[in-house]
Amino acid sequence: MLKFAKSHHWTKYQDAYLLEQKDNLTIEEIARQLGLSEGQIRYRLKKLGIPTILVLNLWDLSQKRNQKINLEKFSQLIGVPIITTDALRGVGISELIEKILY
Predict the structure, then answer these.
(1) Residue 90 Cα distances to 74, 77, 81, angstroms
(2) Which residues, at least 6 apart from 48, have a Cβ–Cβ distance to it below 8 Å?
(3) 1-51 has which fold?
(4) Where are the domains of the chain?
(5) 7: helix, coil or strand?
(6) Which own/partner contact pairs does 29-35 have at CB distance under 8 Å and 24+ positions apart?
(7) Helix or strand or coil: residue 54?
(8) How far is residue 2's CA from residue 99's CA, in Å, rounded to a whole number?
(9) How confident is the model at residue 4 (pLDDT cuts 50, 70, 90)?
């Protein structure tokens, strides 16, 4: 695993790493490896034109708890598509695969 020193300055090496790993890692993994916040990674992915999808797993639990989120508004606010899933039951997985492939 590649580790970068924590820094407030973005480097060309971090960009290269993002471009190399864009299909392989989650934002959380990239943030941990680069020593940066998830927000910094999302911002940089957008600047580099790397497509991002927000996957909300365990969505069924959120619904059971009556947690209401306007996903359309939230998606517009953060500028990425949102897919809800329940991976245990396979709900939303085909939609996620379709979004990834197309």
Answers:
(1) 23, 27, 19
(2) 15, 18, 19
(3) Arc Repressor Mutant, subunit A (1.10.10)
(4) 1-51, 53-102
(5) coil
(6) 33/1, 33/2, 33/3, 33/4, 34/4, 35/3, 35/4, 35/5, 35/6, 35/7
(7) strand
(8) 29
(9) very low
Q: Which two tokens stand for residue 79?
A: 């500028």
For residue 79, count CB atoms less than 10 angstroms from its CB and return exposed for 0-12, middle for 13-18, buried for 19 or more: exposed
Return the structure tokens found at 44.
Answer: 């940089």
For residue 2, pLDDT beyond 50: no
Q: Which residues of 12-41 are buried (b: 16+ CB within 10 A; e: fewer)?
A: eebeebbeeeeeebebeebbebbebeeebb
Bridge partners (DSSP) listed for residue 65: none
Contact 60, 32 (CB under 8 A): no
Q: Across all residues in the chain, what is the average pLDDT?
A: 79
Does the structure show a pLDDT above 60 at 18?
yes
Instruction: Please give the structure tokens belonging to residue 72.
Output: 């359309």
Largest CA distance in the chain: 45
Task: Give the type of residue at 34.
Answer: L
